[in-house]
Amino acid sequence: MLSVTDLRAAYGRIPILHGINFTVKDGEFIGILGHNGMGKTTLLKTLIGLLRATGGRVEFNGADITREASFRRNRMGIGYVPQGREIFSNLSVLDNLRFGFAMHKTDEAAMIEETLAEFPRLRPLLDRAGGVLSGGEQQILALARALCGKPKLLLLDEPTEGIQPSIVEEIIEILKRLRDQRGLTIVLVEQNLEFIAALSQRVLIIQRGQITGEVTPAQLDNPELIAEFVGMGAA
Amino acid sequence: MDLIGIQIIQVLSGIATLALMGAGLAVIFGMMRVINFAHGEFMMLGGYVVIVCTEQFGINLWIAMLIIAPIFVGLVGLVFERILIRFLYGRMIDTLIATWGLSLFLIGVVTWIFGNVTRGVQTPLGAYSFGDYSEKVYTLVMIAFTVVIYLAIFIVLRRTKLGLIARGTMQNPNQASCLGVSPPRVYMVTFAVGAALTGLAGAILAPLNTVIPTIGVSYVAQAFITVITGGAAAFTGTVLASGVFGTVRQVISFEWTPILGQVFLLITAVILLRIFPTGITGRFFRRST
To answer: Do the chains contact at B179 and A90, CB–CB below 8 Å?
Structure first.
């Protein structure tokens, strides 16, 4: 489904990604693990098109999307939940959801009902402004909004960052449902080892803008291995 | 009683005039954060469109005013958005300088075509008596147009997909793009709509004012003061600020002189911005449009 070849990206003249290579199969859930500043968020921003690649190639379902704008990538079927959620703070929860499928042909009422059935926590919040929700509620809203466009591939950037443990558990359950029942292809970037181990079928290690290894979720329980790859002990 | 009645109508007329002047700017500056110094010239173009259509081509005044003027000025806005403004989004000082240049350019072109002479549109519909006083019927029509325009703006922004896309995109263009919306296209359309509203305002006000190439100068300051004092919720803020400023200006003008009316408008703006540094809607009606 997704093929990334020698992908390079930079902020101005500072290179961040130094030739990333990996592929994601249809229905696969892969995690990308790495410390702060290793290029995880930059990688997702380059995959969705918010940051222009300075080299390499990104293919999605066989089409070269390296130079496509983010809105075209979304319309092709790539959803993105950014770090920090990026909720439209002045829009209501309902309008945030409506925005999620504004450019996708769908029955609005049915889509809203389907989304609320999947995310019942949002039902009593529909009239509230996105900006006044808690971090966890915003994360669930961001996830629900991204799914409104019916993506084939979902890019998730640190969904547990600053979120209370009970909502982290809820997000794990939601993502498991999406993985097992919908067969959604997901690329998850995380620092939370337990979270990434609970969901991913395989985990790529990113260090200084390069994929330096691949481990199985079971191997994330091995603190020595993790220390070797990413310099962090298992939590 | 007659005096109070006529004063109420004049206050409403003053409020409507400011609200009309501010409508397009509420889109271009309030929503898009583009300092459009050519706002007054877009209004001036609206006035000239009415003059040319009615005098040169014999087109019905209402068609020229309500249809042709907003379409023409909207297209002018669209052209300048494509060749000038779109390269400057997010750079407020640069847009200020560029649109100042655009304003001088438009004044120059219109002066070259029509000359630096005063033109006018005959006020339609005559006058009516209100006790010992008389007032133009068109003043009431202008007030009604303003109400309809703002109702339409609120409905489009709050109830339509187009409004939802515009509000979200102006708040966070990157995230909007990741949800399938093309921000450059939304910005282009929004700027053109703002220009069209500005042209419509200039056309509606043309029968009540004289039209000269430099008339925009007298519009632009009042429009900016109104929209800035209104605050973040551009349209609600513009309506509220128009209400305050229109009342102050008309009451003072009626009791003393129009010059003092303008002076008190500015004093009121300074006081309001001292009390509400982020505008009226920075404190009240924060979730409104």
So the answer is: no
Residue B164 contacts A, CB cutoff 8 Å: yes
Residue B214 at interface with chain A, using a CB cutoff of 8 Å: no
User: Beta strand pairing status for A53-60 and A2-11?
Assistant: antiparallel
| ipTM higher than the 0.95 cut | no
Residue type, A13: R
Q: B2-283 sits in which CATH class?
A: mainly alpha
For chain A positions 79-138, those within 8 Å of chain B (CB to CB) are 80, 82, 86, 88-91, 95-96, 98-100, 102-104, 129
pLDDT over threshold 60, residue B280:
yes
User: B177 and A69: CB-CB below 8 Å?
Assistant: yes
Task: Map out the domains of chain A with their CATH numbers.
Answer: 2-230 (3.40.50.300)
- Token pair belonging to B176: 């909007």
Contact A103 B181 (CB under 8 A): yes
Report pLDDT for A220.
Answer: 80
Q: What is the rounded CA–CA span in Å between residue A165 and residue A135?
A: 12
pTM of the model: 0.91
Q: How far apart are the C-alpha atoms of B113 and A8, rounded to whole Å?
A: 55
